[in-house]
Amino acid sequence: FKIPGDYRAVTPFAEGLAWAERRNRTSAFIDKFGAPVFERPASSLSLSDVDPEQHTFRDGICLVWDGKGKFGYIDPKGNYIIPPQFEEAAPFRGPLAKVAFPTGQAYIDKSGKRVFPEK
User: Fold this and answer.
1) Engineered SS bond to 84: which of 21, 39, 70, 93, CB 3.0-4.6 Å?
2) pLDDT for the residue 10
3) What does the pLDDT read at residue 75?
4) What is the 3 state secondary structure string of 33-100?
5) Beta carbons within 8 Å of 51's beta carbon, 6+ residues apart
6) What does each C-alpha distance from 63 to 2, 23, 74, 93, 103 come to in angstroms?
7) 81 φ, ψ to 5°?
8) 113 exposure class (CB count in 10 Å sphere: 0-12, 13-18, 19+)
9) What is the mean pLDDT of residues 26-50?
């Protein structure tokens, strides 16, 4: 895959989508032809600031940062499955993801429900 000219960086493709950052620092998820599928939620987070593997789709869900200090999760159409509300978050591994709230850490399921707190 060759990075299209208006993009400066692209994550690995997963589930047919990749996060692509434009030279003007806006970004979108693109298909394998380099065409934007949907714009990524606005944020000041750059591909150079993160581990790209943490911001790819797995089982139809992707971790995103809202640019206002909170993490949430989107589906392959760019809709929030779990709205941004976490201070820190990790990608889902199987049915669970580790997240941090101001009051502590927990694991959540794909509906955003706390499954159990971390000890």
Assistant:
1) 70
2) 86
3) 94
4) CCCEEEECCCCCCCHHHCCHHHHCCECCEEEEECCCCCEEEECCCCCEEEEEEECEECCCECCEEEEE
5) none
6) 24, 22, 7, 11, 21
7) -85, -45
8) exposed
9) 78
